[in-house]
């Protein structure tokens, strides 16, 4: 479990409580002709950037204290949200499943056990835990051995029926099929790291004399590696799984070590191979083949692993904008509410939650925002962000949002390199969103007067040059906002830190620049 300093915990708790209850500073005398008019003028100037000439921009800013709309342009227009979709998915998941929700993974035995022989099948049953590592499956295998099982006369059965068999979102791009951030969704999956990139394997290359050495994390023979790379003066290498196969082709030249996160083609089959190997390593021999199917009702539990809580999972999920977590939680919601671990059932839970909290303009096609048919209005996002402030789980959820300029990866998240050295640093808590031609930033900021503000910025259909700095300028201006004083020349607003990649969430680029 990741630990933070006591001072950081105390500070973030105070901030969260302030956001849940409103600011403690006394009210100031309002003069709309000074502060709000100046804010409107400055945001309009920021949005006059030439990169947005042919683009679509929707921006809404609201006072969380008074409910007043301080700024709005195209507030009701349906725009592509990218990963701002996760605001809806995560809030609905916490409301539906609870912060204490855990994913169990169990091993069951069918038939009768006589001494060290299980005369029946061994069943590995999953419920979607995205935090399962190879070592966790190994620990389950060790528990089976500790239970006295040495020989299984039947099959190794992989039970992934907690979810349906649809692995990819309806509208996901075909060319993302091998990318780890669009990995197939299964109730049985495994992650290669503690970012919990479920459904993927890390493939590493390094120069070894005059040859290129290839390794995987975790070690697995599930993937078929075709190594065509050569040692060269520089590292210019492509590691890519061929569509619809488990074959990874490596081409190019290698000088320095390099690694790539690669989605597996079938998470259930991949996990089955990991588990069978672990069983053998602990002296458990399964005589039959590996198959897939549901565990019979009379199967007896031999071993169990439970994930971290959803409250803890929110951190890697939201800070790093993990798509697979979003889709697994979507199916988990469907399973809990209607007994169907499907996208359609889970998305109904999310949209019903949104509508129950006053959100009107919404079109959810997946849980992560990978679909370009997802549609929200900035006004709807602000409505959701307003409504959840009254929820008992708000402080935990609020702290899971990326925090501008905070260098700690699991605090700053996708905003860790943005807005450094500005009034927005360690102030803005917001969800990023990035696809080609799409960027969004929505969340919370405290003004110079101590007034809590809620905002949503959605920029669509720009052709070149990432306009994330436009989002940052608006967020910084909101942090400078005062109802009784002007902030200065909006054109002079600058943000510190490294430039953020425009086409994808920065955390999706491995090794991640944020």
Automatic annotation (TrEMBL):
Any one GO molecular function term:
serine-type D-Ala-D-Ala carboxypeptidase activity
Q: Which residues form the signal peptide?
A: 1-29
Instruction: Write down the SUPFAM superfamilies for this protein, in alphabetical order.
Output: beta-lactamase/transpeptidase-like
Query: What are the EC numbers?
Result: 3.4.16.4
Q: Which UniProt keywords apply?
A: Carboxypeptidase, Hydrolase, Protease, Signal
Enzyme class (EC, first level): hydrolase
| Gene3D superfamilies in the record | D-Ala-D-Ala carboxypeptidase C, peptidase S13, DD-peptidase/beta-lactamase superfamily
Q: Which InterPro entries match?
A: Beta-lactam/transpept-like (IPR012338), Peptidase_S13 (IPR000667)
Q: Which family does it belong to?
A: Belongs to the peptidase S13 family.
Q: Which NCBIfam families does the protein's record reference?
A: PBP4
Any idea what this protein is called? D-alanyl-D-alanine carboxypeptidase/D-alanyl-D-alanine-endopeptidase
Organism in which the protein naturally occurs: Nonomuraea composti
Name of the gene? dacB
